[in-house]
Amino acid sequence: MKQIDTVNIIGGGIAGLTTALALKTNGINYELFEQSPEITYQNVALGISANIRHILKEWDILEETKQLGTEIYDFHLVDNKLNYLKSFKLPKPALSVHRRQFHKLLYSRLDAQHIHLNTQKSIGDFGENEVVISADGINSSIRQEIYPNLKLRDSNQILFRGISEMVLDKKFQNSYHDFVGQNLRFAIIHMGGNYYSWYVIKEKKTFEEVLFDKAALKSYFKNYHAIVHQVIDSSENIYPAELLDIDPKSRRGLEWFNKNTLLIGDAIHPTTPNMANGACLAMEDSYLLAGLLSHENLTLRQIFEVFQKSRTSKVNPVVFYSWWFGKVVHQNNKIIDDLVKLGMALTPRFLFDKIYSNVLIETNIKNR
Fold it and tell me: Which residues form the FAD-binding domain (predicted)?
């Protein structure tokens, strides 16, 4: 499109920061507005799938990102006693990094004079000819302005996560262990050295008082392998969150944009974390959008239309399978729970690959 003066970005999370970096890489001016007083994040892990590497390389941060964690080569589904149900090597290694440090890395590559903290913006704050990118997350106020009836979907599950520093057996190095069974999940993911990220997913029960301390978390896993308790005990902090997304069916027929304002990342296609890909989807959004905005032969509306069409074909399967997997592995009935674990053990590798292949599709602006 014709060179635009500036792109205004609302939100300083991964979607907003990477959009600013992608625009800067493409020589496009930006202004980023973040309502919080600082750019930071909880001290948790971030999974980066292999299809994002070429993007990080183009942004000139791949090698620095690799220094923030380690590569993951192996994925293991195990039962509550650490009996292996299914193991396989990832087609290409993923990265497991410290998310707070990744945010700091992104921030360090941007121009401070174009970052506006303690600043909350709405659509009405911009002129009709100004380009606005809404990257303000799952509770996006911009989305609520444009589509007040587009509601979040509640999985009725709670996520707890943290990072532990401890010495574990070699089998846990450069690997992802996903414990399933008894209507619970617990994962241990190596982050390099003696650091391991972990998360718990449990079902919310009506009128249940959910406690966030270590003793309460360990009480859920009375019948699990002792390593679960050890990992929880070694964690400095515990961060809880509800698992929400937007059903792709609810977005069907809706434009992700309104005039000069475009919704990206969790603002329009939030996903549950079962495919460990929400942040990666946001980074792909940023990469594709900046490339399209550099295209001289497209109007802004055409850019937004191409962006939505391209991203819908990638995002919707990931959101679907993430929701589906999160429901399948949580079973109250012991017989069904045992059948699910048996099914995991017997499922051929190619079916797992088929599901995960949606994640590994590379987004490349040169093909647009």
Answer: 132-294
